[in-house]
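Notes to self after the call with IL:
- keep both proteins in one doc
- input above output, always
- annotate only the second one for now

Protein 1:
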Amino acid sequence: MADTDQVDDAIVAEAEAAAEVLAQVKAEIAKAVFGQERVVELALAAILAGGHALLIGAPGLAKTRLVESMGTALGLSNQRIQFTPDLMPSDIIGSEVLDESPTGQRSFRFLKGPIFTQLLMADEINRASPRTQSALLQAMQERHVTVAGVRHDLPLPFHVLATQNPIEQEGTYPLPEAQLDRFLLKVDVNYPDLDTERRILIETTSGADTIVRPALDASRLASLQSLVRRMPVGEKIVAAILSLVRDARPEQTSDERVRRLVDWGPSPRAGQALMLAARSRALLRGRLAPSIEDVEALAEPCLGHRMAMRYDPTGDAPSLADLINDLARKAG
């Protein structure tokens, strides 16, 4: 019993220290990104959970600025790739070149691509061909790339924040459902409110440079990710997550709307994502354990890209987001 108490005390002390440093991270990011507190929180939650996030929003909503400032505040190296239809897998992961020594001996040398970074922004990922998308998504899952039969490990931690433009669909290749499932969270980036937009207009056109400073480093981030997985989760929270995920599947639900409107439901990976993201959100908010409120807040970001609705000719069906949020309230 004494050993258990010591472990619990150690986790509490770690969580308190983590809450302080994460508050500093958010404060540094807020210097460069205005009024997107929810987006910043969800992106940080995905990284603390060890996953990747898909940001969906119109151009000009500070998605690139978010990734740059987040990389700096977290003390991670970061790169940006602008995806285009002619982008090849070798443009991302790298390629081999033939070198010749002064003695005339020839050998292949691997030139690393931009994926060899700790925080990668995959801008407009749906503009790349499926072949290029799969190269990135395979690296996201396996944390290494293989070129000419040789394995090259990616730097750790490794996280991807990918973006999609929901407005223009011409010339794009939508991500298949199996690849969408690789993203821990889907984050909708909305337009700023009036006061935030006023601040953006004034502060970003004044000529003053905003300097974001590191509040973490890679090793400290890795310890925070370890802490997230050791945080306790109450039985009530586990039951709520199970109830939500299973009730969102047409084959297992007791909800008539899900049976009638949902084409396919979330996989067990959705429940895993929700468990980890709820812990991350609790830690970001200075709490030791997740609550029902965390589950409700993260239900749509965790499940929204892992489900699909059937066409409803009546036009009376709720949106997928509304349906998920309603199921989350019932589960709690």
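Protein 2 (the one to annotate):
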Amino acid sequence: MDASTYIKREASGRIAIKMGSKSERVMTWTVTVLIALTIAAFLFFDYTGLDLSKAIPETFYNLKTMFLEPALSHFTWGQAFYQMGVTLGLAFLSTIFGAIIAFFLALMAASNLSKAWISKTVRVIVAFVRAVPTVLWVLIFAIAAGLGSEAAVLGMLFHSIAYLVKAFSEAFEEVDQGILEALRATGANWWHIVVHAVLPSTFTYLLSWTFLRFEINFAVAVAMGAAAGAGGIGFELFMASGFYFDLREVGMITYMILIFAIVLEILSTKMKERYFPAAAKSAN
């Protein structure tokens, strides 16, 4: 019998066979609603002045110019690599500080290492922080601290902490409870349990999550370079597209960002496979 078929015995004694399940009906309704919302969104678009016969060829021409004729016009290669270093620095600072702070908060958020009310309080707070998009945090700090790299780092730092607290605390909760109970029975205090049981058991996973967050922060730093005036290659991309309207330079900067992102992914994968094989297997 098909998995979507289920049998129900009625009060009269008869057996009614119905097709489908609750999860399938929920899925069907979800897809239907999403399709309806998509169609409604297209209906609400403002198509005034849109001429598809001109828009489509111009779009393909712009894409050809951007990606098949890339070139730098307003700054040199040396300046380009310097700006890329600024972007990497923003991502690195927010990740390192975020991982350090998140480690201690995650110890309080883990249900097997702290009291229930402390764990729930920390989880609620970081859930709220995580629910607010990174760009909004950056804009909040841009208003409070002014445009610049400080606002970008603080905004990415907030979201990185909330993201890593959830990941780290879940890793801590996977530690064998028997090990913790054995250490408690020997009279070990809370910090000894963390240092001699929790940290050795989860170290590879913590580094794996930190590497992943660094990759995310690099992509965010590109966008924040323009949104918060933090500089970096993202700001140059914003200038090339929004002020100079230089499609060739936009294409070159896009290629540079893509290459750096691929290199970071390869380096991260190689390091995890060589030094942290357990974390690499869990990520796969």
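Annotation: The radius of gyration is 26 Å. DSSP finds eleven helices and two strands in the chain.
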